[in-house]
Protein 1
Amino acid sequence: MAAKLLDGEALAGKIKEGLRKEIEELKGKGITPSLAAVQVGENSASRVYIRNQRRATEEMGIDYQLHELPDTTSEEELLQFIEKLNKDPAVSGVILQMPVPGQINARKVQMSISPSKDVEGMNPVNMGMLVYGQAKVAPCTARGAMELLRSSEVELKGKEVTVVGHSEIVGKPITLMLLESLMESPTPTVCHIATKDLAAHTKKADILIVAVGKAGLIKGDMIKEGAIVIDIGINRVPVLDEKGNPVLNEKGKPKRKTVGDVVFEEAVQKASYISPVPGGVGPLTTAMLLKNTVECAKAQI
Amino acid sequence: MAAKLLDGEALAGKIKEGLRKEIEELKGKGITPSLAAVQVGENSASRVYIRNQRRATEEMGIDYQLHELPDTTSEEELLQFIEKLNKDPAVSGVILQMPVPGQINARKVQMSISPSKDVEGMNPVNMGMLVYGQAKVAPCTARGAMELLRSSEVELKGKEVTVVGHSEIVGKPITLMLLESLMESPTPTVCHIATKDLAAHTKKADILIVAVGKAGLIKGDMIKEGAIVIDIGINRVPVLDEKGNPVLNEKGKPKRKTVGDVVFEEAVQKASYISPVPGGVGPLTTAMLLKNTVECAKAQI
């Protein structure tokens, strides 16, 4: 059996279409959603994020402001800068670009973003609302993975779900989202680095959600026949030829590709649905950033 | 094998002893921890709670203030009253007595208690800090159950834990506390009313934590040999004689007793450690209310 692909690009497209309408309505009421991105210092990786964010927001009609602070900015100065954005009525949402220089505690600064402008869903208030099943915004990747899972239209009630990875912004929020319904939740098990027999847990999972960041972690024989597999890992690995040697690019350097945590070619033979990497959860992470931004703009009416 | 009892009274006593020292130190700095209890309307059950709270706090040297509002109090009036207590520097902690009259959304009012005075650990901010593993205060029963579990001194790392019950103030917070450690967490599975095969999950649990409120739910044959069993249920049931008929009290009414969710007489033969009901988690719930109150007082220095 070859699994159906859970197409993140297509789903993200549909979600964005809905958001575009909401944004038009907001503009009709005189509100233009806006996202303020704060970048501290210079970083090539975050340059890429920023370019993508700018394109994604501007395509939607969301204002994008980039604030570039010098890499000597102190934590205190950054906190003050965030506080200014928190109070600025022209700003709907605030995002701190990662990474930040060593003198800054990124988590502390992220937590200081006002709950009502918290487009990454990382403020403790919004995390707490996840416990209560009442969150308006939530961590983008976790929320995106749930959207992709729901798009399979398989009933979640009573299903055995194994979540691999217990990070604060992916594994734990997903577990809370799975437990949202009082009467119709699935039964989640949260595995992680200290889990004694990971395969025993993945093999019994009707739904397997993997968010570790370790290529090759989940092999085909660890997957239950007919399971739904949501692969959240994003790993850059060398491309190998048939003999297992690295393929070189035109500059003579090892060619690299992006893979998830699941061995896709094996898993696709066992699963009923599977999210590919790239093209699965990734596009939804961006879509959820836009959705959170719109939610923040709506809450500020 | 007969399980060792996890004695909640004894552990609560030890914890209170430590708290008493902390309270003395606080008083040395001119701070007297104080707990403001808000009772709306008249209710015989909450009378008992209040009497117990008053005794427990006053024994510790914590000031106890009871605020009695009429049962016609509106939600808005109650929110304003809470706001006054939130701002009162003489108040370290605030607790809303349950139940409240029907015109009041209890959860909404509980959430309005300032995070820094949140002795029940129910404000979303504090719930969110549980996700981050950094909570200073946490829901009393969940925290008490974890203290009792830890008192067994059994290593949690890598253990299979089954949590039965996914309530917002017990099952979910316990799960988050179990997942607190990055490298040394146990592997929790959260079961609930929609779980398809509860016994399959309880039978494989090295640690079984039950918080449902249903007498007789967990029978001996559902428990793994040598498991640790933490029974959080508190149920009032009729006392039956050998023939299964209700025993009457001196007034001719059915005599009642308090039991947990676990069939104790059966479970005690299978488990290595078990928390009795009463005398297990119950006394720790009160001790954690005191601990949270002291934490709040310390945070206000």
Note: Chain B touches chain A at residues 107, 123-133, 157-158, 160, 166, 168, 172-173, 175-176, 179, 181-196, 201 (CB under 8 Å).
Protein 2
Amino acid sequence: MRDDGRIALGVDVGGTKTEIILAGRHGRKLGETRIPTEPEAGAEATLRRAAEAARTEFGAGAADAAAVGISVAGQVGARGVLLGAPNLGWTGVDVRRLAVAAFGIPAVVVNDVRAATWAEWRLGAGRGARHLVVLFLGTGVGGGAVLGGRLLDGADGIAGEFGHLTVVAGGRACRCGNVGCLEAYCGGWGLEERARDAALADPAAGAALVRLAGAADAITGEAIAAARSSGDALAARLVEETGDVLGAALVGLVNALNPRRVILGGGVMDGFPDLLDRATAAVHARALPAARKRVEIVRAGLADDAPALGAADLALVRRPRMRG
Amino acid sequence: MRDDGRIALGVDVGGTKTEIILAGRHGRKLGETRIPTEPEAGAEATLRRAAEAARTEFGAGAADAAAVGISVAGQVGARGVLLGAPNLGWTGVDVRRLAVAAFGIPAVVVNDVRAATWAEWRLGAGRGARHLVVLFLGTGVGGGAVLGGRLLDGADGIAGEFGHLTVVAGGRACRCGNVGCLEAYCGGWGLEERARDAALADPAAGAALVRLAGAADAITGEAIAAARSSGDALAARLVEETGDVLGAALVGLVNALNPRRVILGGGVMDGFPDLLDRATAAVHARALPAARKRVEIVRAGLADDAPALGAADLALVRRPRMRG
């Protein structure tokens, strides 16, 4: 786990922007820049532009980098080939090989949520916990885990999809094709869809929320937060249910994986910070005594640059060669 | 992972009997005996009697054993201390230290389901799969996993309680204190309780089952299997629901852990073997495409001696010292 004081590049390729950082010892950020992502231009062009931006912005620093870590919003196979990336459309692309060619240094490729999980463990709210579960509740719900000091990867490199744990068997349809997934209730889209359905089913109860949003179809997390602040009963109930399902999922995860710490991050947590207390209360009330006794449930410690930081750190820790 | 051709003892301390085996290379069973467990006599006396039985039964073989693995039906902490063992009542007992004293050789202590998981991986239906999830559906539902070739242990040595994943949020009460656990639906007690409740709620539908069992309170898994064979609609529905909940849990586990293989064993699987097909169909229909593509779902390969065999093998692999 020593990083020898070397430096690395971290590149987080998102659907709209690509964040590029230069990271030194202990994840210290030495430089940062970003370029727009143009998915339709392809992975090769995107990585070439990222490498150019790094050279322009970081100069000698970029030339000194020992390796580059690429973080991608998609399912990354064990050898750095994208198995699926709905926001980028680069399925089947060998991103690792393209990154080696573009940057001229060894590269690792990792899913963005797993990269952020690693960053939280090494540099953020997960430090010191060798058994860690991370959930990011954004539009969807992503996850990752460090178990026994190792990033959970799975047989195909895609483990950690805790957003697609079935928590409500026979429940709401998830975008993934399953029913009753955590994400279908606690992801941003799931919360908004539940609000819309509730407002349409009971127009009187939904009146305030619909007025605030303009239409039932237009209800956002922000509208739910605002309505709740002004005392709206439906908004309060929606958030309460979100906490109940999140708590139910966390009880199961704590029982199944026995982590020392659980980290909760993402936009839904930012919008409804009291979900942390609700979920924590559920775990302390209902998880197995030996598993709940010492578990801590905390908010994420890093900002939006966590995936790029984690990818850079993984690039140093995994010591990739030029040919994988 | 080499075992050097050494031999080890494996001792599985159950609530009613203690199984003692002598295991050689590749888990080959060189000898086997069993004694009744008398929990109230305490752990020290039980382990002493097991050591005596091993010496009597295996003679020179027992003297040659390099280590002993103790498998216990309970929550085993990281250093071999029992954190909870409802069927034995030995909470807080340092089983590892007592085993070293009784057998005079280094000892490891492991939960019985984790020991069986390890045995399935090394010697049974899990061979060759470096990412493996195991579920044993007996009276309760126990579990274990091998991830990246390592036995999942967790921060307190108690990971793998997949029977206490929440699958039906807000659902049936589980004996563990949570609601909606997999075990509350698919463990033997959960199945029987659901049958009783259904028979009491709808006496006409439950008539055949109650007649077969003698009383609603006395409905067993065997009675459900018999009623179903003779065409009873309620029994068929109960098994169908069991498969639905098991499938929902497996979809989530496959998404979360991305195993290459899932092993299902235990008395409920023996009684209702077609649950395997139902659960497999759910995973193939609803798990994330990249996670379900190469996953295999199979029956357990070993018999009741799996915990003792797994404990013996772990004792060789982990190379314990006399003082932990």
Note: The domain at 8-112+304-317 of chain B is CATH 3.30.420.40 (Nucleotidyltransferase; domain 5).
Protein 3
Amino acid sequence: MSKSGGFTEMAGAKAAKEAPHVGVGMLGYAFMGKAHSNAYKKIPYMMYPPVAIPDLVAICGRNEEGVIEAKKRYGYQKHYTDWHKMLEDKDVQLFDNGTPNDSHAEPTIEAIKAGKHVFCEKPLARTAEEARTMLEAVKKSKVKHQAAFNYRFLPAIRQAYDLIKAGKLGKIYTFRAVYLQEWGMPHYGVPRVWRYHKAEAGSGALGDLAAHLIDLARWLVGEIKAVSGLARTFTTERPMPNGKGMGKVDIDDDVVSLLEFEGGAIGTLEATRFAAGRKNHGCFEISGEKGAIKFNLENLNEMEVFWVGEEPKETQGFHKVLVSEGYHPFMSNWWPHGHIIGWEHAMIHEINHLLDCIVNKKDVAPYGATFEDGYRCAVICDAILESAHSRKHVDIKY
Amino acid sequence: MSKSGGFTEMAGAKAAKEAPHVGVGMLGYAFMGKAHSNAYKKIPYMMYPPVAIPDLVAICGRNEEGVIEAKKRYGYQKHYTDWHKMLEDKDVQLFDNGTPNDSHAEPTIEAIKAGKHVFCEKPLARTAEEARTMLEAVKKSKVKHQAAFNYRFLPAIRQAYDLIKAGKLGKIYTFRAVYLQEWGMPHYGVPRVWRYHKAEAGSGALGDLAAHLIDLARWLVGEIKAVSGLARTFTTERPMPNGKGMGKVDIDDDVVSLLEFEGGAIGTLEATRFAAGRKNHGCFEISGEKGAIKFNLENLNEMEVFWVGEEPKETQGFHKVLVSEGYHPFMSNWWPHGHIIGWEHAMIHEINHLLDCIVNKKDVAPYGATFEDGYRCAVICDAILESAHSRKHVDIKY
Amino acid sequence: MSKSGGFTEMAGAKAAKEAPHVGVGMLGYAFMGKAHSNAYKKIPYMMYPPVAIPDLVAICGRNEEGVIEAKKRYGYQKHYTDWHKMLEDKDVQLFDNGTPNDSHAEPTIEAIKAGKHVFCEKPLARTAEEARTMLEAVKKSKVKHQAAFNYRFLPAIRQAYDLIKAGKLGKIYTFRAVYLQEWGMPHYGVPRVWRYHKAEAGSGALGDLAAHLIDLARWLVGEIKAVSGLARTFTTERPMPNGKGMGKVDIDDDVVSLLEFEGGAIGTLEATRFAAGRKNHGCFEISGEKGAIKFNLENLNEMEVFWVGEEPKETQGFHKVLVSEGYHPFMSNWWPHGHIIGWEHAMIHEINHLLDCIVNKKDVAPYGATFEDGYRCAVICDAILESAHSRKHVDIKY
Amino acid sequence: MSKSGGFTEMAGAKAAKEAPHVGVGMLGYAFMGKAHSNAYKKIPYMMYPPVAIPDLVAICGRNEEGVIEAKKRYGYQKHYTDWHKMLEDKDVQLFDNGTPNDSHAEPTIEAIKAGKHVFCEKPLARTAEEARTMLEAVKKSKVKHQAAFNYRFLPAIRQAYDLIKAGKLGKIYTFRAVYLQEWGMPHYGVPRVWRYHKAEAGSGALGDLAAHLIDLARWLVGEIKAVSGLARTFTTERPMPNGKGMGKVDIDDDVVSLLEFEGGAIGTLEATRFAAGRKNHGCFEISGEKGAIKFNLENLNEMEVFWVGEEPKETQGFHKVLVSEGYHPFMSNWWPHGHIIGWEHAMIHEINHLLDCIVNKKDVAPYGATFEDGYRCAVICDAILESAHSRKHVDIKY
């Protein structure tokens, strides 16, 4: 236990040796550009002593006014409006793609060809076929590649991973997961932005939300061998963002699927933007021979665990664990004794991991999701839609 | 509001007029025999003033010693060891079948033929085919028939039903449900009792647990038009109860299914006896256009509701409702102000409903589940297993 | 573990030997009369095999029409409108007093003098002085005496008691408790019934609700040596129940107190009928050197426990225990596997305990609350009001 | 509602006009130094467009090696080992005191005399007398002064404040609050650091934890007119941090108090470092005539509210509100749709408020806590200890 009640460990007790720098080129400056930039800015003083110092070399976006403002806001040194130019910038070693799904593949593949390490938002691509081109690109290269399945880097979920890998659940029987949001519902009045357009987004709740669950299912439980799915579009047209009439919605608002795992487990998942009252309700429960683990993204500092055999039965029950202490994954970087963290912190841990892999020549897997993981997730997403169409269970083939 | 703080309304304020009597013949005296007998004994003084007085005419079981003890315990007037004899008893007007699944159909059909009203435990039968014979029998008769889907009679679930029927959820988008128990897991050491034997039980978690969810799905959301299922038997043999070697387990330990509703909603369900830490975790969440409703059987005095449009958004959220007040369904029969009820009370409400239908010539539907409902549930159960086998989505045909 | 999954243990496996009978005379037929009568009716077949069979000899109340109806409703053999007469009835061995607080002392003392065992609702009396007269009466007699602090007989609270007595919490540091209800608030419109009248009730939330917490504090943590209190009457007059004008409210609507225990622990309590949104929210948390225990009456089938030292720290947390299994106190009498019980069941367990003490010559203490406990609780209640008046900490002297 | 589902509002839509700069001099670099520095670094790009840009002018601490490292870590321009020197630095406009309690008064008063705006950690001082000297200093000056009662700046608590000020609770009846931590318990093995030493800390759980509750009580409910307290030191000696023997603990490990508010409400509070299983459990519930509000610091993105009169009673219940949306206080600065924030964010909002007050000449009150608030809190803390000693209720006199 801490000699000071956990409080003065906050001070850096020893001098940080000089950490190597990694030049970052950021593509996109909206929600994900903001979240990623925040991570680059916090890593040097919060993931301390730092394994690497990210240099905010450049930010790129199509709208020059916007990108200039973003440059000033986050402290990037340069800006570009053409990503090809940014890829020519020798100071950029890590290409970070935080754009919508239809601009994941091309710029990222070009970055790989240019020898940049790559970090790309999820879903990796609009389809498995497109994701495969990205995977093939990294296979031909030596760059580090990470797909932004950031929930792997939440302390509670990493703790779940560590417990499962240590055999604490034994054989796994079932995985059940939902990712429920409500902002697609009519009363929100969201227009037909790119997220509702298959050509730009690939899919709807599936690629946006179910992809997270699928990545966690594969990471925590194991490979998926078959699925059976259904999808629904509850609102089939929406006003165009430019105000010019209505546009067709051709993606899924809600998707459900059965899962068969190679290890014998089965499962269910649902992802939807039509769940009244649910803001960001991403939950899973994994039931195994020796115990069970539960998680809820809206309360991400907590996990619940149950152990079958180790406790007096009269007081057995799910443990409600506040994953907030220095002995929990990542938490020694933050605050003492139950001072909780937020959603943005997973992104910080995730990007820090990639920087560590880059400068220390470590593998991104198994802690981080690679483009192989991004591809496999895309294959499963496609299979769910195929099943919804063919009305058959669909075997997964990578 | 009550003039006395809700307390003295407990006293019957006016004399009960003499209620008609209904003679009951009970088949079975184990778990369900106990729960049903308890209901018959409490109705006269708790569902007050009573619509009918059940007379405990006879109880029947194969083990004479056991049935004689049960007769004394619960106060039945007579006992039988052959149900044919009990059906000949003129004093029996209501035949209550609380036996294992393989003795649902024959005695119940004979009771119907003998002109007895019938109350049969769920699942109605081992297969849809068998359930159909029971349905056909009641169609040819004038008796009242009720299948023991007792959760319809929990105050919170009846409240959910009333809200949905009043349109409070609007169009329904999704139904998600689980029924998780753990007593099938290896460490419980349960032998190969009838519940693990297809010839006696028909199915495993499916007919035992998923059947409840399917009945609620149909009742609350509407008719189901297709399913897609998976099933697993995690423990394939168990010691025979008679101590003579091992017996094969040929039913499902865990079953999952997708649901397509005629009204456009989709859903998932899981039922399992292998969910570590879950004692009797029967939950559903229904998401609709105007709101959502949640329920959990382990905390059955509560429901959660969310309304989309009626509240200031800064304090919107799921309402955690203690369904414990006199203005909630059934609760005025019980205790004032948050003094909660238990699982057994649903059975009391359910049997009281059937007695009311019998003496007042009311329809069992829509509040109670009829044999038509029991049959339809069986059709859906069969379709889930068929889908697990054929690996295709299966359309429901009644 | 059960050989049958916990299900067929429901059948009485062996014949009950003939249990002795105890004749009951019940005074009062409102809320408590109903709850006690229900207990007498269920004990013979649910607390099985029974330790004693209560005979419903007689019920007594001032309103003859009401008491005759209650006799029929609950199946009492006789009725009285004068409790003196009932006490002359030789068939009555146990006198059960379920009346308002101002008729606790006199009839109960007369019953004791008549050699009847006594069960009296809480608070035992309106003041410590009055309670002392009841205690003195039982001290001069050989009758069994129990005060209806029924929450001692909830399975979760008995489990807490057993854990504490086994030393599982070690030295206790703090007891914090609230008992929150809302039905006194203006919008309920409750008139000035006896509960708002000091001459009849003695006190308000204090004797009605805080008394439960005080009894639990003494039972679970140990003797109280000093208190410091405050009290408020938020609604100082209410319409008289007879419709004739307004009546003064001279009891507390809300009371708070500090507690000092002899063992060194400290604590707080609050009892109120003015807590918006709280129906029957009786909660405590006990923090000790080795662990902690939490309980909430609105979810009475649960308890939460935390153990300091016995578990891997990364998954430490409060265990949410569903106190619903056969190995939990009292639960083997009821249903298998998470089929929960309600508020009324504590009363059944409590009265069964008293019957056991009567027929088997056992001590009511420590499991049941005796009149000594009822008196001590009254002393503490009086001290809290004295402190609110004197504005000093008040030492407890019995 | 957002036209883009809430996502692209993340991009700064309009260029920030050049914000004024405020030079910061930070005293202390441990837990609070880290949390404050993090706030200064995040404000320019997250509280966007910024009202002011904090310049990290200097950091000061007694240990030169440590303070140099902190300078590099957080990006301060200069370092000092003598705070007098830092106060002479003309570039410092805001003096931020994040040191232990015994170095709050003197440096802060000197800073005020030097014309610096001041931000001081809580409790403002070790005693009311000491706090009064600080209050008197600001009264003689024109500097802005804020005491770091950061929980006022949690979105859920600000939301609670706004609701109460808008009259949504009506007349308030009760305030009940606890602040429970466990790290003082023996098994943590914390030595006799300054927090256990009255000369350095002033008090224990009282000034550290109860002070937060007292500030919130005053802010949310209103002025306190009397208290009655108890305090306990469960561990009376601890090993000295320097390894030289044992040191006496002369502060409170656990403190409880009754509260009387001028507006008629009453309340209880407890603060302890001996609550097994509680990491940072700071909770309050406020019950009023028209509703109630609940909050828990371990789940700080949530609040619960209950409204007495505005909803159909059959679905009334506490609303579980995820305070995570753009329409909630402060949240539009962060992430869309349920992407939650952490503990550190309150500090960011709080310091941003002070910067806004400095550059825009606004009053720190009522949203921020001034030194007047810090002083009044200290008076109440002292009164609680006085009551614990005198065993009388103590009237508050400022």
Note: Confidence is low (pLDDT under 50) at residues 8-15 of chain D.
